[in-house]
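Extended Data, panel c. Modelled sequence:
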Amino acid sequence: MENGNENVVRLAPPKKKGLLPLVFSRFFIVVLLLVLQVVVYFLFMKQLREYLPHYAVFQTIFVFCATIYLFNNRMDYSAKLTWLALIAVAPLVGTLLLAYTQNNFGHRTETKRVNALINMTKDAIPQEKETLKNLKGDPYASDDLYKYLNRSGCFPIYDGTQVRYFPLGEDMLEAMLEELEKAEKFIFMEYFIIEEGYMWGRILDVLIRKAQAGVDVRVMFDGMCEIMTLPIGYAKMLEAKGIHAKAFSPVSPIVSTHYNYRDHRKILVIDGKVAFNGGVNLADEYINRIVRFGHWKDTAIMLRGKAVSSFTLMFLQMWNLVESNPDFSPELLKSPGVEAEGYVMPFADSPLDADKAGESVYMDFLNRARDYVHIMTPYLILDGELETALKYAAQRGVDVKLILPGIPDKKLAYSLAKSHYAALADAGVKIYEYTPGFVHAKVFVSDDERAVVGTINLDYRSLYHHFECGTYLYKVPCISEIEQDFQDTLKKSTFVTPEMINPGNRGYRIMGALLKIIAPLL
């Protein structure tokens, strides 16, 4: 395994590690200003308590109103319990924090803009009636799933689309580079994480050459990258090379609830002919070029054909968030069909609407499965509904198996995942941990007929707080490859027996029990 990054394109020197660079970084300044705002808030609260002799009366009124509000709110019941626990511990502070978060401070404009763009493009890609007609009465009700998803967006279900599955990020990279070299009109990229190194350097080399040749190259990354992985102003560095670039929701030193909503999607569209989707970000650990948590197991797919149109539309919706004249040119949304079996439905999930599309699709798999549902996910932080769906599927005889990381990337998330093990195992769900390292794949496959590959984890952040996307596959030939990859991964995984769960690691058990109270807020 090579660790060097020789002969790859870089636009900035590597980020320095250590305490001193952190202290003098923009990240430290942002955090400092945020902390100062919180300190000022609590000082104000302290003064308020000292000068209000009837504080207890006000506190009782606040708590009563908050409780009534929570019981009538549409939020998940696990989240309601979390808020009630916080209010019980710190009544006034908890109530005001609830009011602050529910008031959508800092992202009202973003919410309106996102919803306006989605409404504007509800009919941008017409659904082919013949496709729905062919799906009528199918045993897995894919036409019903289409109806549900299209309540909150434009997500046609397509025939005429080839699908190629990649069981590892390094497999995807080679195919991605090959397709990028063929670009003639446009390249649209939207990724949660971009980090300079071998992987991004090889891609960037192609992007710069294509931009110089007149190809419309656009790159969008989540604003957290400028704190965690990229230098500040990286979008301008890309612009200097002819690449149009944007950071989604960049972090600024103002307390706001909009930081909770990140763009976790991974989308590449080339000329409206080819699209990539899956769990793989653009950083070297995703292709096992560097080692962080053992072997990095990830997955992705490549679409060629009609369904590419949906990923083009998803990208343009996010790209146009800050554009005064949003461009959804019909010619950009036309993708030619190819000879292919099966049906493909790309879909997106927005945290700014009332629908939880990702969770609903996963629950549909669990509720309709006849023989098996096999799942790979890096995190397992479940609400009550999803845990019940997993248990119910297993209890009615469906073979439900989950593969989770053997080497976690986040100790807190790992401890929360383990807090679900006993209840799931008692219901018959079989849990495995990937012995060689970290599973970052987000895959559901069921009954040799259906699968989802995308960006959606089984945790609150993905299911409730992030912009996400996935690809629903039905009767597509590569579904057998997805199931075979699951079985191959299973052979490298350790079955978590009841004897392993109950004694467990005491530290993880205690941490999981404590964190479960605030899991919806993590």
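Confidence is low (pLDDT under 50) at residues 1-5, 19-27. This feature is highlighted in the accompanying rendering.
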